[in-house]
Amino acid sequence: LQLLRPDSVDRAVAALGNGSVGIAGGTELVPLLRDGFVSAETLVDLRAVVPHGVEGERIGAGTTLAELEADEDVPQALREACALAASPQLRAMGTIGGNLLQATRCWYWRLAYPCFLHGGDRCHARAGVHREHAIFGHERCASAHPSDPAAALLALGARLHTDRRELAVGELYRLPTPDDRDLTALERGELILELEVPRPEASTYLKAMDRRAWSFPLVGVAAARFGEDVRLALAGVAPIPWALGSPAELDEATPLPGTAYKVEIARALVRRALEAVAAS
Ligand SMILES: Cc1cc2nc3c(=O)[nH]c(=O)nc-3n(C[C@H](O)[C@H](O)[C@H](O)COP(=O)(O)OP(=O)(O)OC[C@H]3O[C@@H](n4cnc5c(N)ncnc54)[C@H](O)[C@@H]3O)c2cc1C
Ligand code: SF4
What is the pLDDT of residues 244-276, one digit of tens each? Predict the structure, then answer.
């Protein structure tokens, strides 16, 4: 395995594709390489080229979760989502760009079952063990999106700047189809460079998890209030981060037999999140 250290975005983009993969903190990519879910002849180190740090509403995609958690200029929902993710060691290495692009934690997928997301014709979790899985959007794949910060960024209405375009964070994600099993809309070799995160009047992120630390979200709820307008987004409930138009939309959830409990957790967390961001 070869390691390249480009010194500009153009050189990094030119080096990507054709058997090379970008690496930032490596906390997600290294296990995927080890387990054979990603193969690469060359790793392209992104750390010198992807912007890093917080400047007003702009956040470099190379900023670590630990840095975001500690920065008082960052909206509360994003700080809390970062603080509740993974472990201190992983947050010190893992970047926000890499976090948005992490693969599913579904055990069938991680154990290499030939399921829909791996290109097969059925979802093994739907008929099998699916306690951690989805309550929305699971027609083909019932996985639950694992990123806490992605839900916070969705509620905050964040935009992403890549090396070739600008898009809303909601446009980064897509449900898989028979023609395209990818859960993100990034092109091959496209780099996320910066996030633009509006400042709300109030925001919060609440998370239900199996253990108090180092656990992926069973349900995560982000709420952000801009004036009178409150936006909600959920983690852990669909294959992608899920925007919730209103609390009543939880009545439209279609839980699997083993995930019905998530609807009740989501209702309780949405209620608490709305109270937390309400104008006093
Ligand atoms: C045990 C464990 C527990 C975890 N728990 C949680 C949790 O509770 N909540 C949560 O939200 N997350 C959790 N995570 C995920 C963790 O936050 C991510 O692994 C981390 O943020 C990824 O960042 P990285 O820089 O290490 O990415 P890398 O591993 O370097 O890269 C991940 C992927 O993103 C691509 N990439 C990286 N940066 C860019 C960029 N700028 N542009 C384009 N592509 C890029 C890489 O090519 C690769 O495909 C957990 C991870 C582990 C291992
Ligand atoms: S939930 Fe998705 S990743 Fe898991 S088995 Fe079903 S298709 Fe595969």
Answer: 999 999 999 999 999 999 999 999 999 999 999
Q: What is the mean pLDDT of residues 172-181?
A: 97
Task: Please report which helix (H) or strand (E) contains residue 233, including its range.
Answer: strand 229-235
**Distant-in-sequence, close-in-space partners of 68: CB < 8 Å, separation ≥ 6:** 54, 59, 74, 78, 79, 82, 96, 149
Tell me how crowded residue 222 is: count the other CB atoms within 10 A of its CB: 35
81 in contact with ligand 1, CB cutoff 6 A: no
Contact 250, 263 (CB under 8 A): yes
d(CA 181, CA 174): 9
Beta bridge partners of 202: 225
Mutate which of 52, 80, 95 for ligand 1? The one with the most ligand atoms within 8 Å of its CB, which is 95
Residue with tokens 């879910």: 37
